[in-house]
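In this section we walk through a basic example: taking a raw amino acid sequence and producing a predicted 3D structure, encoded as discrete structure tokens. The instruction is simple. Fold the sequence below.
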Amino acid sequence: MVTLLEVTDVTPGGACCAPLMREPLGQADAEQLAVTLKALADPARLRLLSIVASSQDQEACVCDLIDPIGLSQPTVSHHLKVLTEAGFLSRSKRGTWAYYRLIPEALEQVSGLLVTA
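The resulting token sequence is shown next.
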């Protein structure tokens, strides 16, 4: 017995789904987005972001981030630096400790690229 498969027309006029974006990314935008997504593509960094986001005033001291992550202080500091350079966190120094604050607009910008318009 032969089973026939239904064929879906994927030509430009017959697309089944709306595109994720209205126009293709330019080179500079693609490079910036790749850096941003690469910063998020690590479980420890995602956990750090979630801890900071759920902290009072969406701010946390590096001293409060070491134990929950279970990594050494230099490794946690490296991950925080990557997230800061990617624009997800801001850093301020108070005495000997660094405090990190979530930048919600950065997360909104990334999520906006993944939502259909």
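Looking at the output, two observations stand out. The mean pLDDT is 83. The chain has one domain: 26-114. In the next section we compare this with other chains.
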